[in-house]
Amino acid sequence: MRKLLLATQVSAIALLILFRPTPSDAQPAIQDVKSCMEGVYVLEEFKRDGEVFRPPQIAGRFIALNGTVTYIFHDRTRQTSQTSIVGIGKYTITASGYSYNYDDYTTYTHSAAGTTVSRQLPFQGRIRSFVPRLESDGMHLHGVEEPQNYHCTPDARTVSDGAGNYRKYRRIRSE
Prior knowledge:
Oligomer: single chain
Helix content: 10-25%
Number of strands: 12
Strand order of the largest sheet: 1-3-4-5-6-8-9-10-11-12
Largest sheet: 10 strands, antiparallel, barrel
Structural class: alpha+beta
Radius of gyration: 22 Å
Number of helices: 3
């Protein structure tokens, strides 16, 4: 009887060790976050205020490589005012998250009255941080302080603002 009890205890401990959460189960590996965020992306769809736009009404790129982030966006969806944005900054990727900010950000607004230029940094120049979660449909990065989220698959990335607006990008692969 004592041998059976001891064997049961040893088996239970072995199962606990085998199925206990490991650090890799608790959060995605750094490579998962990198494969989600790093790369060159072309904008394919933009949804704002319930309306979906595609090229040539919109055009854009998002590039995250070697710690540098570049954002280019051309919004030609409004006849009275067209906007072009160029942002250059830096990002950091760790196993526990992704963060980025812009060092330089310029918005050009073209209207019948002329062209205006703003160099105001978005989000008051703060660093935006995201927490990764690997799910069955891909990698999700959730904004820590803001409702912005990323959803990545091997070929695409969607950025949403929590209010139904989004930008869908397709990853550009080298041939």
